[in-house]
Structures are given as structure tokens and as C-alpha cells.
């Protein structure tokens, strides 16, 4: 099972509590970016395009724990940048787990073997290794040779030491369904505990703008992949089956960006982990002052092709709670790959895109220039 029973039970209880309290908007996963610095420069990444002064910044352990406590989500995904560059991360992870949170530590695995003994196996801790396909495809995706082999070696080491290990696979236009299905078979044979898969989001600052999927291509691609794995039943996914069904064009979900809020150096990112259009100082401010209705598929041009897990997993989780029988039948039968796809949300009334990336970067740079050197957090492992 891609999601452990303990985690399923705790998240289910959490969601049920929110429903009983009649909360319409609540977080499921805190997307934490303690730094933007990375030791790779992937062509499809829009997270590392910052001046060196900002890349040198990091969240302190106190800031990380404040975000975890303020948000209250049962799951914390630590991404970046490359989180293993953060010297104080082992301390932060330990203290997050002590709070009863499930931690997914995302890494490209280049430093994983070196850093692995800084962490302890736990049912609350999972390594999430970035792998976008087989050796040729992944190394091309991350723009560096040899990364795939290092990642596989690190996965084997982590499993030998008793850790839970997932992979995070992002797919782009041109992905071969047959090759991806074979890749899923191969990584499953490594003893993986789960696969997280998602179409790439069209970051406006990413170097490669030619290979992002539109919605139709996404649905077709995932149908072809699942078709080669008995409706996806051949593989363990660390995601809701209803979300995977959505990727295959069998559900027409609206985005729930508040379900996976993002905290990074700039603050709480509006409106979501993928789209930075301003920042709130606190989680409460994010939730109460963001104009949520102005974002999402059909509402905003930048969101038109998004089908990423950070936007729609929360929607799928709510759907599962409302109709557990539907979820159970889907898990038993597998994902439909032959019947007509459901009608999608119309895009013709979406408001035009605004480009505000430079504004918050300039504000941050101005702030850094006025800070004393002693207060600047520059130490990176």
C-alpha cells in the first residue's frame, strides 16, 4: 500500500474533524521550502531562478517549527531547492516528527548517502527521491549525467537501513507511456514504498517552456500509462486513487490550493506551492485574505493547464471522504482507460495572466540590503 495504514487513519480522522467543525478550507499538507538553493539546475524547474543573495537564505529551525505549528497540517513535505543542503534540517525533521507529523523529505539524492545517518527510520518519515524516468530520460531531465545511478544507489541504501522510500516522478510532453510503465516496474522492484506522479507545472521562469503538458495531453498520457499497468494496480502510488483517476480524465475536479499551502523564505506563498503571486506574513493571513475565487482552472490563465497533485489531491481527499464506496470500487477495479473522458472545466472565461515575479524578488533584495550582515542567514552545508 502506497500510503501506510497509520497515515491513512490519522489523515482520515483529521479530515473528518474538519468536516464536523464545518471548515470549508483547511490544509492537508504543508509544502515547506526551507531554501531555494540546489545542486542541480533542471530545465523544467521554476524554483531556483533567484539572485545569489536570496539563494543564500534559509529558514531557521524556529521558523520551520513555527510554520508547522501555525499551519497544523498532518503531513509536512520538505522540498526546495535541495533540502539536504540545509545543515540544521535533521534537527528540524526530528522536532516535526515529535509533533506527530508525517514528514516527506524530497531530494535529488546527490547528498543522500552522505547525509542518511543524520536521520532515523520512522513510520513518520519517508525519503522522497526525485526520478523522472529511466537513466537516459532522468539524466536529461536534470541536465546532468550520472544522477539516476546515484539516486538508485541511495534508494537501495535507504531501504537496507530500514527507511520508507518513495519516488517523485514529474512527467512532461513527449514522455513515452511504454517507457514510463517499464520504469514504474523497475523502481517497484527496488522495494519502493510508493510512487508520487504528476504532470509538470508550467513555471513561467523555467528555462524549458516547450515541454509542459496541456490538459488533453496529460489525460491521454496517464490513460496510456495506466493501461499498461492494469489500470494502475500494478504499482503502489502514494496518492489518492481518485486523484490518479482525475489525471486519466475520469473526474472533473476544481483546484483546492489551500489544501497544500507553501511556506518559504518570502513567507506564505499566494495562492499555492506552484504559483507565487504575493506572500502573506502568517498562515491565517494567507487563508483569510487570499482571493481564492480568482485562481484555479477556469478562473485564471496561468492555472489553465494545471493538474498537479498539490492543487488537486485535496479535492480528491474530500471526494473520497464523501464517497468511500466509489474509492473502494476504483481501487478494486483499477482506473478506467477506455470510456470517454468527462467534460472538463471551460477555460474561456479565465482572467488574463499577470506577471509579478520580479516585484517580490526586488522587495526581498531591498530588505536584505538593509539587514546587518550578522542577521543574514548565509550558512549552507
What does this structure look like?
It is a single chain. The chain has 381 residues and is α/β, with parallel strands linked by helices. It has one domain: TIM Barrel, CATH 3.20.20. 38% of the residues lie in helices and 12% in strands. The chain has 14 helices and 9 strands. Strands 6-5-4-3-2-1-7-8-9 form a 9-stranded mixed beta sheet. Helix 3 packs parallel to helix 4, helix 8 crosses helix 9 and helix 12 packs across helix 13. The C terminus is likely disordered.
Offer a quick outline of the entry:
This is Hopanoid biosynthesis associated radical SAM protein HpnH. The protein is of the alpha/beta class.
- Rounded mean pLDDT score: 90
CATH architecture: Alpha-Beta Barrel
Number of domains: 1
First-residue to last-residue Cα separation: 35 Å
Spatial order of the strands in the main sheet?
6-5-4-3-2-1-7-8-9
SSE blueprint and pairings:
Layout: H1 5-20, E1 29-32, H2 52-55, H3 61-71, E2 75-78, H4 89-98, E3 102-107, H5 112-115, E4 125-130, H6 135-142, H7 147-160, E5 164-171, H8 177-188, E6 194-199, H9 215-227, H10 241-247, E7 262-264, E8 267-271, E9 276-280, H11 283-289, H12 309-322, H13 324-333, H14 357-370
Parallel strand pairs: 1-2, 1-7, 2-3, 3-4, 4-5, 5-6
Antiparallel strand pairs: 7-8, 8-9
Helix pairs in contact: 3-4, 8-9, 10-12, 12-13
